[in-house]
Amino acid sequence: MRVTRLLGFVLIAALLGLWEAGAHAGAIDARYLPPPSAVAAAWWGFATGGQLAESLATTLASWAQGYAIAAVLGISLGTVMGFFPVVRAMLATIVELLRPMPSVAIIPIAIVLFGLGDPMKRFVVAYAALWPVLINTLYGVLAVDPLLIDTARTFRLGAVRSALRVILPAASPYIATGLRISTSIALILVITAELVASRSGLGYFVRAAEQAGRVPEVYAGVLTIAVVGYLLNATFVALEGRVLAWHRGLTAREGV
Amino acid sequence: MQRAAEPPLVAARLWPALDWRALSRQALGFATLLAVLAAWEIASRTRVLTPQFFPPVTEILSTFVALWQNGVFLPHLAATLWRMAVGYGLAVILGIGLGLLLGRWRGLYDLFEPLIEFARPMPPVALIPVLILLLGIGDEMKIAIVAFAAFFPILLNTIDGVRGVHPTLLDVARTFRFRAADVLRKVILPAALPQIMAGLRISLAIALIVALVSEMIGATQGLGYFVLQAQRGLRIRDMYAAIVMLALLGYTLNALFLLLEGRVLAWHRASTGQT
C-alpha cells in the first residue's frame, strides 16, 4: 500500500480525533453531534442488546427477497425482450414511461396494497431493482455476437438451451452490471421504506431514535447502515470478479 | 457502483426519419400501453380490481387535470424543483471541481480514497435523520441531502474522465507551456466532458429521488409530501394523480437532460470523429 493511501486512514483518524476533542471542549454541540466515543458506546448497547441483530436481519431479508425477485424477473423479461423483437416493441413504450419515474413514487401504492409490513418492503425493493437488471440484460442480449447465435443454431441447440448456454453467458457482463447497480438501489429503497413507513429494520431504528431524541443511537444506526452498504458492494465486486473471470479469459484470447 | 453509465433509453429517439418499420414498432408499443390502461379501466369499473385501491384510469386522469386547474400541484412542484435545483447545483460545482483536482493529482486522490470508498456505497437517505438533527426539517436539510447524494456519481465520473484524457493532449498542453489552471480548464475539462455528463445524468435521477424521500419524511410542501399525505388520508385518486405527475416529471427531466447532453457533446463528437 502506498504511503499516501496510508495517509488517507490517518486523515480519517485525525477527523475523528478532532470531532472527539471538539465535542469535549464544547466547540461542537454534543447534543446534536455527539463525540465518536459516545456513538461507539451507543453502538455497543445496540449490538449487545440484541436490537442490532434483529433490525439487521429484517432489513437484509427484505433486501434479499426483493432483490431476488427483481433479478429473476429482470433477467427473464430482458432475455425475452432481447430475443423477440415483437415483445420488445410491445413493451418499449411502457418501459420507457415507467423507468424514468422516481422509484420511491411506488411506496404509497405499495402501502395501499400491502400495508406497512415486510411484503410492502419486498415489493418496493423488487420494483426499483428490476429496471437496471431488465435494461442491462436487454442490452446484453442485443449485443451478443450473431456468430454465437448462428453457431448455436448450426448445432440445433433449441431455444431454451441456446438461451441458457449461449445467450445468457455471452450477455453476463451486462447482466452483472445491472445486478451491481441494483444492489445499491435495493438497499436505498429498503432503507427508505423503513424510514418512511415501517415498524422494523435499520431504517426504522434510526428514525425512531431521531424522533425520541436518542442522538448517539441515530449515529450508531447510520454507521451500521453505511457498513452494510460497504460490505454488500464489496461482496458483489468480489463475486463479480470470480464469476466473470472465465469471460475475461475468453474475450482476452480473442483479442477483443 | 453508480459509476457505470446507464445505457440509453429503449427507444431514445421517439420520431426518427420516416421509417415505416420503426413507426409500426412504436404503434405496437402505444397499442400495448393503451390495452393495459383499457384493461385497468374495465377491471376497475367491473370491480374485478378493487376500485378503492385501483380507481379507473379516467378518474385518475380527471383528478390530475383538476389538481392542476385548482392550482394544487404548482406550489408542491415548485418546492420540489427548487430544493432539487439548489442541491443539484451544489453537487455539480463541488463534484466537478473536486473531481478535476482528485483526478489530476493521484496523491490527493489517495489521501481521500478511504473516505470516499466508505461514504460512497452508503444509501444517502440514511443520512436524512442525522441532517434533521443538525439542520431541522426545513429546506436546508433537503438541499443538503440532495447535494450529498448527487455529489458522488459526479465526483467519481469526473475523476474517471480526467484519468482517461489522452496523454498526447496533456503533452501538447505542456509543449505550449499552459499553466496548471489552463490545462484543467481548457484541456482536461473538455476532454473529460462525456464522462462528466454521464455522471450528471445519473445524479439528476438520484437528486429527484432523494428530494422526494426527504419530503416524505419531514415537510409541509413538495410532491413527496403530497403523495404520502394523499395515501395516509386515503385520497387514493390524488395519490395516483401525484404519481402520474412524478412519472411525467422524471420523464421530462431525463428528456431535457438528453437534449442538453446532445448539444453540449455535439462538438465533442465532431472533433473526435464519432458519429
Question: What this model shows, in words?
Answer:
The complex is a heterodimer of chains A (256) and B (275). Chain A is mostly helical. Chain A has eleven helices and no strands. The longest helix of chain A is centred in the last third of the chain and has 38 residues, at 159-196. Chain B is mainly alpha-helical. Chain B folds into two domains: 13-48; 68-272, Orthogonal Bundle (MetI-like fold), CATH 1.10.3720.10. In chain B, 77% of the residues lie in helices and 0% in strands. The model of chain B is unreliable at 1-5 (pLDDT under 50). Classes of the chains: A mainly alpha (256), B mainly alpha (275). At the A-B interface, helix 1, helix 4, helix 5, helix 6 and helix 8 of A face helix 1, helix 4, helix 5, helix 8 and helix 9 of B.
Number of helices of chain A: 11
**Number of DSSP helical runs of chain B:** 11
Count of distinct strands of chain A: 0
CATH fold-level topology of the largest domain in chain B:
MetI-like fold
- The outline of chain B comes out as globular
Portion in helices of chain A: over 70%
Helix and strand succession of chain B?
Answer: HHHHHHHHHHH
Helix content of chain B: over 70%
Q: Architecture of the largest domain in chain B, CATH level 2?
A: Orthogonal Bundle
CATH class wording of the largest domain in chain A:
Mainly Alpha
Helix/strand order of chain A, N-terminal first: HHHHHHHHHHH
Rounded mean pLDDT score of chain A: 88
In quaternary terms, these chains amount to heterodimer
Rg over CA atoms of chain A: 23 Å
Low-pLDDT stretches of chain A are none
For the record, the CATH class of the largest domain in chain B is Mainly Alpha
Remind me, CATH topology of the largest domain in chain A? MetI-like fold
